[in-house]
Design brief:
The protein has about 90 residues and is of the alpha+beta class. The protein has two domains: about 40 residues, HU Protein, Chain A (Irregular); about 55 residues, Irregular (HU Protein, Chain A), CATH 4.10.520.10. About 40% of the residues lie in helices and about 30% in strands. Helix 1 crosses helix 2. It is elongated and about 60 Å long.
């Protein structure tokens, strides 16, 4: 499912106009992104949660030359699947 598919589904299910449905989806994604940028956790009960993991810097190696190189610390978003979603996907 793409963002466009999500907008179309929202439009059909709620009767919203396409621009309004697009505005709702954009607002939802913007707020999730803003929360993660502030290192806040985003939790959608039964579906999933997103949070930011901190990774420490380390000394790595350049694969071509083998020279040591410092890799800076970084933060990356992390997705964790909810129990209900796991069960629904694994349904047989």
């Amino acid at each position: 499912m793409t963002k466009t598919d999500l907008i179309d589904t929202l439009r059909k299910e709620t009767g919203l106009s396409k621009p309004k449905a697009e505005q709702v989806v954009e607002l939802f994604f913007d707020e999730m992104s803003n929360a993660l940028a502030n290192s806040d956790r985003v939790e959608i009960r039964g579906l999933c949660s997103f949070y930011v993991k901190d990774y420490k810097g380390y000394t790595g190696r350049n694969p071509k030359t083998g020279e040591p190189r410092e890799v800076p610390a970084k933060k990356l978003p992390y997705f964790k699947c909810g129990k209900e979603l796991k069960e629904r996907v694994d349904y047989k």
